[in-house]
Amino acid sequence: MSFTKARTMPGVMELLPLDQIALQNLLDTVRRNFERFGFLPIETPAIEFSNVLLTKSGGETERQVYFVQSTGSLKQGEVPELALRFDLTVPLARYVAEHEAQLTFPFRRYQMQRVYRGESAQRGRFREFYQCDIDVIGKDALSVRFDAEIPAVIHSIFSELKIGAFTIQLNNRKLLRGFFEQQGIADNQQQMLILREVDKLDKRGPGRVRETLTSADFGLSAEAVDAILAFVGTRSSGHQDALAKLAAIAADNESLRVGVAELREVLELVRAFGVPETNYALNFSIARGLDYYTGTVYETTLDAHPEIGSICSGGRYEDLASHYTRSKLPGVGISIGATRLFWQLQQAGLARRGQSHVQVLVAQMDAAELPRALGLATQLRMAGINTEVQLESKKLARQFQYADRAGIRFVVMQGADELANGTVAVKDLRRGEQFAVAEAELIKTLRVEIEQSRVMGDAALPAAAAVVAP
Amino acid sequence: MSFTKARTMPGVMELLPLDQIALQNLLDTVRRNFERFGFLPIETPAIEFSNVLLTKSGGETERQVYFVQSTGSLKQGEVPELALRFDLTVPLARYVAEHEAQLTFPFRRYQMQRVYRGESAQRGRFREFYQCDIDVIGKDALSVRFDAEIPAVIHSIFSELKIGAFTIQLNNRKLLRGFFEQQGIADNQQQMLILREVDKLDKRGPGRVRETLTSADFGLSAEAVDAILAFVGTRSSGHQDALAKLAAIAADNESLRVGVAELREVLELVRAFGVPETNYALNFSIARGLDYYTGTVYETTLDAHPEIGSICSGGRYEDLASHYTRSKLPGVGISIGATRLFWQLQQAGLARRGQSHVQVLVAQMDAAELPRALGLATQLRMAGINTEVQLESKKLARQFQYADRAGIRFVVMQGADELANGTVAVKDLRRGEQFAVAEAELIKTLRVEIEQSRVMGDAALPAAAAVVAP
Predict the structure, then answer these.
(1) Domains in chain A, number
(2) Which of A140, B72, B84, B400 is 20 to 30 A from B135, alpha carbon to alpha carbon?
(3) Is A10 among the domain residues?
(4) In chain B, what residues touch A45 (CB-CB under 8 Å)?
(5) Residue B225: CATH number of its domain
(6) Domain ends where: B347, B375, B395?
(7) Residue B377 and residue B314 share a domain
(8) End of a domain among A312, A347, A382?
């Protein structure tokens, strides 16, 4: 018989169980924090009508779309009318437009699903990856106060993930636009092209960027380029410094005035939300794409790992669903690319393999006593302890070996001696110890050990500061 | 501007947030029980190579496959080399074959992901749906004892879901084969065709089924048909009756002998696993498909809702991954089609809308005091209480209305009076009551209320028996 090679397509992440648990822990932490801040879950289908998905994009997005066809339509040579979602924003827009009458506004939704992009295969690029999004959608209007809530959620998530010190970088598109207008550059498209060049500062160095911006392509004066580089180089350190940097801006046009005012309100409320000032800063170089965002924009970086780039980004937009509905739906949101983040944490040595969910293996001492072992396991499970039973008859050493390999910490044994005196022997594979407890005390004892291990496990983690030490 | 109609493709389930929470609760319960029995999670990509997915199927499956193409390959008119998974079994086989060297056997995995089938659109048929699978995969061999563990997992899940009395129906393919051999029908294909006719008993009545089976197509004698109908009509009531029904079989061939012995061992161990005898029964009409299963087979039905059909099915197979590897990988597993189950429970009035995850709305009494409200919310969140803050200034009545519509139970208010005397006013929208507590007591008070509500919520559920009363 000939075999088909068992393989996945390139660009997908497939994990062994203990790594899957680690990813699941990351996702669970994100979800728990989304819920803590009052966001409600939705899920949308992976497959959507192509014309619904591709209303506004064209260009880059369309080139990366995966089209879907059933065998029937394939045979008939039809152009695919279905495609896989490439983000969660377009499906959100479609969802809100479709169900508008049944939703309560402001609509606070979270969504954690996989999205699909036909990227060229490349290390660290994924064709299927989890996005974890929150958005608050207003009807007609949405206070800028919601822009201040987003950093509080980001702070809550990344503090709990314990992956090191991080900074939520804040900027405002109105501020950027106002500044460029001040420099006599009113065209939005040209503003973005300039920002794109500025983005290359780290790679190309200031000399070459200056050269490009003063070249015929851009035609900027050396003074204008100096002003731009100075402005986008603005970074704040601490809350008062951020306010001072805003106060120092000569806001002589409307866009600049509104941008400064919005950023100031966001900063004040971010502090009121309890976010420590070490965790947020102004960064006037952040723009986040060409068309979509209109006010506050966010990026989040790990202080010790700038090479990872932003691990959580987003911003404020004017109108979510203008392609589907006449209703004006302004919103603010962020997205965490969890698959890429998990991969990056692994690469940076910040992701640990998960611990098995299975806490106990009930050993098989004597096949005739299997029903008793099953009864013991049922008791443990009813007490909330995840338990596997050794069902196949094997030497005890092989049972230990199996538990050890599978990452199961406790092996519970009840042989003839233990049965005679009403006890249970417990082998703790992590500590390499074995002890005996009265059968009636087994559950209590294991619970204490598991709880201690949970607390100790956290304590044994390198503290956040240690992780990020250079 | 012209609008694109916001709509999903037919055959997908998209839910409003509170229904999404109800589905999520169902999935979480399934997952918790899988973990309780020591199963470990894996996830596989939705997109696989077509030739990997379609090794063994052909026929029905292939006709329902969704093929996937990136824009690039679409333009070049290529035959799609990618497809969406249509179940979790083929991806499991591919996964185990691909990662065999890194897995610990018996490999106990659970997997809860969506699968895709190009079904013709029809009420209650889904093109995208959740499957929740567990399988135990052995290397070379796997004791029949594992077949007895599966009903224990099923029992644990459906007891916790509280959707009424249910029966796990057990049969064994070796038993069926042995019986047919006894009747002189040795051909596996013909056995299945006969079983397919027998399956129509309820719809067509015994007269017409008899007619078909004695017709030229099948050519069975009236005596043989009687024997078949009597045999497949076997149902046990209670553990002893099940054992008695097995003992009554004249097992005069090897297949029949082994089938009887396996079923007997499974029954004995299912009891030892603590499954009440009202929750399992022999049902000799269950066959589950043509080629795949080779030993124990399972179906699970709700006693008061036979029209729903099986809500959890599976069985024992000889060799999981023979298309990908020379290794012999016998296994046993089940699948729960969670999307369809949820839909059916909704149809049968057995699914309740979920309760919002959001427990508290901190009201905005005075915009100037917003930072204080944010601080209060942070305290609640740090105590594990999911909390939303009223960020936009609105009349209190409108804030209550919002909380009520959004399903948030408590509105927490701190106006000038409360601030003056260090208290907080709490409006309980479910009970329609308002009370005051000292600010220092707020968290404790809310925790007690939320915990009580959780327990009462369970108690307020129609008890399982009541739900299934005719």
Answers:
(1) 2
(2) B84
(3) no
(4) 8-9, 12, 14, 128
(5) 3.30.930.10
(6) B347
(7) no
(8) A347
Residue type, A467: V
A64 and B70 within 8 Å at the Cβ level: the answer is: yes
In this model, does residue A56 exceed pLDDT 60? yes
Tell me, yes or no, if B247 comes closer than 8 A to chain A by beta carbon. Answer: no
Q: Do A321 and B6 touch (CB under 8 A)?
A: yes
A46 → closest Cβ in B69, B128, B388: B128
Are B377 and B412 found together in one domain?
yes
Confidence at residue B119, expressed as pLDDT on a 0 to 100 scale: 82
Question: Over the stretch B309-330, which tens digit does the pLDDT of each residue have?
Answer: 999 999 999 999 999 999 999 9
Residues A397-433: pLDDT tens digits?
999 999 999 999 999 999 999 999 999 999 999 999 9
* Structural contact between residues B275 and B242, judged by C-beta atoms closer than 8 angstroms: no
Please indicate whether, in this complex, the C-beta atoms of B41 and A7 are within 8 angstroms of each other: no
Is B327 inside a domain boundary?
Answer: yes
The rounded distance, in Å, linking the Cα atoms of A334 and A149 is 11
Residue A332 · residue A152 · CB < 8 Å: no
**Distance between CA atoms of A356 and A374, rounded to whole angstroms?**
21
Of B9, B74, B406, the CB nearest to A104: B406
Given this model, what pLDDT does residue A57 score? 53
> Are A71 and B67 a contacting pair at CB < 8 A?
yes
User: Same domain, yes or no, for B176 and B276?
Assistant: yes
Would you state the pLDDT for residue B458? Answer: 45
The DSSP-derived string for B197-233 is: HHTTHHHHHHHHHHHHHHSTTT---HHHHHHHHHHHT
Instruction: Identify any residues that bridge with A316 across adjacent strands, giving them in sequence order.
Output: A332
Considering the domain architecture, whether residues B115 and B226 belong to the same structural domain is answered as yes
Give the pLDDT confidence of A218-250 residue by residue, as tens digits: 889 999 999 999 999 999 999 999 999 999 999
Q: Does B95 fall in a domain?
A: yes
Q: What is the mean pLDDT of residues B81-105?
A: 96
**Which residues in chain A have their CB less than 8 angstroms from residue B67's CB?**
68-71, 74
| Residues A393 and A429 placed together within one structural domain of the fold | yes
Over residues B213-228, mean pLDDT: 92
Q: Does B103 have pLDDT greater than 80?
A: yes
Choose from A362, A382, A388 for mutation: most chain B CBs within 10 A: A388
Contact B7 A95 (CB under 8 A): no
Q: How far apart are CA B44 and CA B48, in angstroms?
A: 9
| 8 Å CB contact of B3 and A324 | yes
The CATH number for B400's domain is: 3.40.50.800
pTM of the model: 0.93
Asked if B449 and B413 sit in the same domain, the reply is: yes
Q: In chain A, which among 45-74 make CB contacts under 8 A with chain B?
A: 45-49, 51-52, 55, 62-72, 74
In a shared domain, residues A62 and A166: yes
Nearest-neighbour CA in chain B from A4: distance (Å): 5
State yes or no: ipTM above 0.95: no
The pLDDT assigned to A100 comes to 97
A297 and A172 Cβ atoms separated by less than 8 Å:
yes
Q: B47-90: per-residue pLDDT in tens?
A: 999 999 988 655 667 778 999 998 777 767 677 899 999 999 99
Q: Is B325 on the interface with A (CB under 8 A)?
A: yes
Nearest-CB residue to A358 (from B38, B273, B374) = B38
Residue A74 lies in a domain: yes
The answer on B239 and B330 residing in a single domain is yes
Contacts of B170 (CB under 8 A, 6+ apart): B151, B263, B266, B267, B270, B280, B281, B282, B283, B286, B296, B297, B298
Contact B274 A42 (CB under 8 A): no
Nearest CA distance, A245 vs chain B (angstrom): 23
Domain hosting B443: range is 360-460
For B16-37, how does the pLDDT look when each residue is reduced to its tens digit (9 = 90+)? Answer: 999 999 999 999 999 999 999 9
Smallest Cα–Cα separation from B444: which of B385, B402, B358? Answer: B385
* pLDDT tens column, B133-162: 999 999 999 999 999 999 999 999 999 999
Counting one residue from chain A and one from chain B, the pairs whose CB atoms sit within 8 A come to 291
